[in-house]
Structure formats: C-alpha cells, structure tokens
Amino acid sequence: MQTAQAYSVTSVRAARSSALRARNVIDPYEKVRLTRELAREVLGVQRTPAIELRGIPKPPKLVSPKLLPQRSLASAAGRASLLHAVAHIEFNAINLALDIVARFDATSSAFVLDWLSVAEEEAYHFSLLQGHLVSLGANYGDFDAHNGLWEMAEKTKTSLLSRLALVPRTLEARGLDVSPAMREKLLQAGDVRAAEILSIILRDEVGHVAIGNRWFRYYCAEAELDPMATFERLWIEHDAPSPRPPFNRAARLAAGFVAEELDWLDSQAKRTPTRSAQ
C-alpha cells in the first residue's frame, strides 16, 4: 500500500486520470470494476465483491423525489424499492468520490488517497446492495430514482470548498441521520441481510463524512476562513436543503462535527420546518 509520502506527483496525475475514466462510465458493472482496479493499484485494496446482475443493467429513470412511490416493506418488492433508492445513492457516491479526485487539482496526495478510499468503499456498498437486490428478484435500474446528490455536485463543480461543505457535510451526512430508523424498519420486516448491509454502510459513512469535515476545515484554514461562517454562507449561496431532525448526534460527532454545528443545524431546522432535506 502506497503512503501519502511515497505517492508522487506523477502518480497523483495518473490516479486523477483513472478516476475521470471511471467516473464517466455509465455501466454499473464496469464502473465498479474500474474503481476496484484503481483502488487495488493505488491503495492496495481489493475488498469490493463482483456485482451480481440479472440481465443487462440499465440506468434508472430519474424523476422528482415527489414522484417516487412509497411501498410497504412487508413485500419483497417494497424492500427492493427502498434498497434500490439506497443503491442509487451509493452509485452516485462512487461518482462523487471519483469526481472530487478528477475535477479538483488538490496539492496534497493525502487528499487523493482519502477520496479514492471513499470511492472503493462506496463501490463495496453498491455491490452489497446490488447482490441483495438480485436475491429479492430485482436489479439496479428497475426502479425510478432521483438525482439530488448529483445535482448538488453540478452546483458545486467550480469550488472545492463548496463541494466539501455541501456534499459530504450536508447531503451525505443526512445518511447518518436516516440510516438507523431505516435499518430498524427492515429488521421489523424480517430482512436481516438488508439491515446488516445498512449497518456496514452507516459504519463506513461516518468515516466518509469525517474525511469531508477534515478537508473542509483544512481548506478553510488555508484560506483563513472561519469554518462555521463559511459553511453557513455556502449553504445559503447554493440553496442547500434545510436540515431535518432528528439528527444522529453521536454519529455526527464521531464524523467530526462539533456541538456548535449541531446546535446550528437544530436552529435551522426549527426555522424552516417545511423544507425537504432531500
């Protein structure tokens, strides 16, 4: 495994080029394959299992979140619908981690290594979910999905600080809040394997949000900016979704948020209770 110190400028450029190639691939199987290959070459990691597919995968139809139907978790189809939504988030998260490496010319090789490790873990999550979808008689692409994560990526494509503030620290951090309740509902529905997968995702996402928090504060310090004031400014500028409680304070604190930030989230949620968090 290469260390940040041993990782040369040439290696960083090669990794950025490979990340761009993997990000631009549409086919889920090929995207995960290329991400695994990149993680193996750069990080010495090959944990992501091969994807199980039923036929030729197709991208999901993207619709407004309001048009996505609510399905009962009592049925396999209902659980598949929910897990498909999570799989779509994880698929977008692969792209987001690859994109932040490919798009932004970060000077630190540690930055590249951090986000490639995130990409590999997101590919791992997607593969676990896809495998379980197959066991439920479904496939990624069988259900409609929304594109909220990537829409924010587009909004923040010209500013690394905005990307760090509003993707890992805002949209991805939301997963820390909703995952425990979702896991309990799946357990109540008798889907132990789905609950196990969500536990793995929650565990790893704490680390991903922590990476976002660490680099956000790093670049704020480099620019001599106050992190709290900068986050609030960027949140307003980009019309980020309003926070929606309850917040998983323990997970957010473990992911590098501080109490002042969590209190601010509470105050914003009370101020704008009707706006959607997704």
Quick description:
This protein is mainly α. It has one domain: Ferritin, CATH 1.20.1260.
Architecture overview:
The protein has 278 residues and is mainly α. The chain has one domain: Ferritin (Up-down Bundle), CATH 1.20.1260. It is 67% helix and 0% strand. The protein has ten helices and no strands. The chain is globular and about 55 Å long. It starts with 8 loop residues before the first helix and ends in a 7-residue tail after the last helix.
Layout of SSEs?
Layout lengths: L8 H16 L3 H16 L32 H28 L5 H27 L12 H8 L4 H29 L3 H31 L4 H11 L11 H6 L4 H13 L7
Helix pairs in contact: 1-2, 1-3, 2-4, 3-4, 4-7, 5-6, 6-7
Over the alpha carbons, how many angstroms does the gyration radius reach?
A: 18 Å
The name CATH uses for the topology is Ferritin
Shape: globular
Q: Name the beta content range.
A: under 5%
**Major beta-sheet overview:** none
Number of domains: 1
Distance between the termini: 37 Å
* Average pLDDT for all residues: 88
CATH class division: Mainly Alpha
Q: Helical region count?
A: 10
